[in-house]
Amino acid sequence: MTISLSSAPSTHQKPLFGTVLVANRGEIACRVIRTLRDLGIRSVAVYSDADAGARHVREADVAVRIGPAAATESYLKIEAILKACRDTGAEAVHPGYGFLSENVDFARALADTGITFIGPGVESLNVMGDKIRSKNHVAGYGVPVVPGVAEPGMTDAQLIEAAAGVGFPLLIKPSAGGGGKGMHIVERPDDLEATLATARRVAASAFGDDTLFLERLVFTPRHIEVQVLADNHGNVIHLGERECSLQRRHQKVIEEAPSPLLESLPDGAQIRARLGEAACNAARSVNYSGAGTVEFLVSDNAPDEFFFMEMNTRLQVEHPVTEMVTGIDLVEWQVRIAAGEVLTVQQDDVVLSGHSVEARVYAEVPQKNFLPSTGRVLLLDELPADADGKVRVDSALLEDLEISSSYDPMISKVIAWGGDRTQALDTLDRALAGYTALGIHTNVEYLRLLINDADVRAGRLDTGLIERKMPEFSFRHPGDFEVAAAAVYAAATQEHDARAAGKGPWDLGDGWRLGARAPRRISLGTPDGGVATVEVSGAVVAGTAAVTIDGGPQRTASLRFPTRNHAELTLGGEARVYSLVALSQGPVSPGRDNSVPTEVFLGNEGWSCRLEVLTREARLARVLAAIEREEGAADPAVRSPMPGTVVSVPVTNGDTVEAGQVLLSVEAMKMEHQLVAPLAGTVHISVGPGDLVKADQVLATIHPAVHAPGPSTAEDTIEEAVIAMGAAE
Predict the structure, then answer these.
(1) Residues 209-241: pLDDT tens digits?
(2) What is the DSSP letter of 366?
(3) 236-248 and 221-230: which strand pairing?
(4) Phi then psi for 617, rounded to 5 degrees?
(5) DSSP labels for 647-686?
């Protein structure tokens, strides 16, 4: 079956807009531009300096620079957006999600200038944009809400006092914004004060409002939301529900429609109807207009009980799964409703066909607590050739695109449809296995592990599943195949390019001599900081060689390229196919040829790795670093995991700290990362709040307490010296 989105016929004589400005970036801007193009509407993109070469800039009809990389100086700057509208003649603005999409001041400013906001009215934004206000408001319209303390303007002291009445564990939530940012679980009263301070910082940074409230933590909760559509003529419908229970840090990772929980219950259809009616009532309570989402917490133990969490007065990241099962283009209806058209789809017309699952692809390292990652996309292949309309990829990626630390790390979404949930998950798994984005870290391998977990496959979901399952997942590491492929490719590239340059045997540096050719030694740096040494000999320029890895047995390796950037490696009679691309950064030591790869990136079945081609000096440095620190010992240097801004330093120079104590916090990619002491000792801090830091920059150092050195043997000293000498060869 091929899924296509329906085109809503116009029932009014009023024409749609001539020009629409998309006040957003990334994959959502690309997705909105696609529908505008289908409707024959001229699209305007806006971009910051960091996004000058971004995909949404290239795909729009017109693009306007609005400021520097910082979102507060570009995508969040209302006057810059208004000026772009005036300069391009935009009659309407689509805000996407995030940034200004739920900003009531932005909607008012557009209205004051006669520009249509493709979204709800000011009343809806004003009420639903504040979680405290919205919770109290919908409770008056018969919509069930989670028990808690939700009063505007409460201080930390007042929240701490009120927490006893809520009970522990509880959930801190910011009143403004969404996306799970600033939300924190607190299990003990002793942790509340410090966590409130962190939550306020994150909320103020992300939303410009640090108002917080408390809610009772619902155990084994499932996150189920309902998509609504409402026009300006009193018509309100819902398009079924989405299950978004697979989350980490309160941010969704996998979303699907319909909910497997409701599908598994005998009275699931009745619960769906009740949820839909509650969502519609919430929308009616504020005279809602456009597409919106009402989010509910549903107890897995008592699924007939559900609680209103919030209403997102905008398009959701996960809207494609609803489009896939209903065939309705939500962006098109947003535009038509904003233009004054009547909603022609009635509730009885909404039929959920099959099942759809979406996976969010992030630039991050799941093995390092989902640490966001930056980098440059060197090779990209996102949509499988056999998609047949059952796979959709909403993406912001382009080859050679630089992933900035200034914005959210979500880079694309892979959405799959199937006749039932199992088919949809299988299709998504195949699509992820073929997803390739080399040059950057992604969570694609993790997504495959997650959707193939037994509990996920069985539909036993809750919002805490990812944290419980993470320790069970086994991530792949580079093995002999990857090391051999990188070494043979590096050796062959060096020899081929040198010969192509017309160099003689004395200039090649390939070990040529009279008699048998000397093996070429290639040292590769592995992601864990180790070194793999490969001896390569034979006709490497033809892609065939004999390889010896770390002193092991000699094996025959053959590397060929059946298609662009797809390498087939045969090692010892076994064959594997990889996506492969190399990066050369010019000479890194005297006499080194510019064309020699300094990094080799390989991808296979959704997994990828980076292997660094080490110079002799770099190899020696890695080996000596391993010698200087005993295996398992903590590194006393505390480094920034990525570029960012220091936002908090709760300790001072000379303080005595314990292992695990928070030393400072760095904000990057819209997240706050707390850096802790790796061991007990005296701390030296080298940065302060507001400082910009680079990736891997040392921000603090721990000086451990001095202990008498243990006895060392002559054998220890000799062994270390021998290792160091071997590394220097």
Answers:
(1) 899 999 888 777 899 999 999 999 999 999 999
(2) G
(3) antiparallel
(4) -65, -40
(5) EE----TT-EE-TT-EEEEEEETTEEEEEE-SSSEEEEE-
